Amino acid sequence: MSDDTEGGPYFFLSYAHTPKHDPNDPYDPDQWVEKLFNDLCEHVMGMSGLGHGAKPGFMDRELHSGSHWPTRLAESIATCRVFVPLYSRRYFDSDQCGKEWTAFSQRILHHRARGWGNTEMIVPAIWVPVPTESLPEAAQDIHFSLPGIGPQYVEHGFYGIMKLRQFRKAYETAVYNLARRIVEVGHAGNLPSVDPADYKSLESAFGPHDPRRPNGHRLKVTVVAPDIDTLPNGRDPYHYGHSAHEWNPYRPALNRPLADHTADLVRNLGFRPEIGSLDDHYDHVLSEGPPTSAGLLLLDAWATTSGHFSEPLRRLDQSGKPWISVMVPWNREDSQTAEAEPRLRGCLEAALPHKLTEGHPTQRSPIDGIPTFEQFCKAVPEMARSAMNQYLRNAPAHPPKGHASIERPRLQGPLSGGNETEAPP
């Protein structure tokens, strides 16, 4: 990517708007964010070598009244080089900020799925310090410390060092080093532009806010597929590896194991994924006890032709478990699967007659399969949410310790027998 191509901004500043404490007060609480943005743009323009007319940055305050802001935001996220989230507690509570993070993360996953490297194009900045243990799952592995940025910035964030005059030099140092990091990442990376995301269909990367679960709910990704040593007779090993984990039905559109890509997708929804084979997740899939987590079961249709898998799948089908969503990738480019379609559909129906017709509309016909990698990526969030909702409905409750019950107050006094005095009229 050259310095002036694509027409998008060099960086996208993602931040949570601060509401006014008094609607009638003319003071703008976000003016300090705008100052930070302008200072970053000045440094990025000077260090990056951007040409005349190029846009160093984007923030939504530049939108004029009447602009269709979702479209402008989506276009900027789809074409920018670097995503700069401005960390604060309000940021991670914001559904809009979570959607912006999801939209950019989808670009990274799209890039990684095609084997173009592990691109790191997210450069966080601290507006107000947030404890590391309070970060959502999507942000847990993103490094937000910068060399040479200064201890005052780490302790107070940009808000603190901008508001206090004594930290003026600390602010100048911090904003310069942040801009330098943005330019370093922008030049090192090569993240292709994509079509703008449909914001209405996006899920927040931070999940529903729950202060008791800062890292989200656990979600098990179970792979039911043979390895190259246990393939059905005549099955081409092209889509398989040395373990179930390595199964990749969408190769060459996807250049990594499907389970790894699925884990990244659900992590961007705020869940904590755990990948395993049917043997690894035996208790989760087949035990008769209460659910311990939601799950996605990635099923290779060819696995249902083997007794090793078909019998456990029948047991899963008989046990119900609506908190486990079944997904059947059915690559229409796989000619061998297309030729064996009648047989495979028959084996699927025999193994999972109930699972194939339960639950959410997307789940009603997994036997029809998911024919393309793009459709699979769109289906995962809906299937994961459906499984999690079912888990929350069916998981055992754990009320706090204390009295077994609290007697409901009555205006007329207790109803139990004994020497009761009549309530006054």
TrEMBL record:
Boundaries of every TIR domain copy: 11-106
Segments for region (Disordered): 393-425
Top-level taxon of origin: Bacteria
Entries under Gene3D superfamilies matching the protein: Toll/interleukin-1 receptor homology (TIR) domain (3.40.50.10140)
Signal sequence, renumbered to the chain: none
Any one Pfam family match given in the protein's UniProt record, by short name: TIR_2
Record-given protein name: TIR domain-containing protein
Lineage: Bacteria, Bacillati, Actinomycetota, Actinomycetes, Streptosporangiales
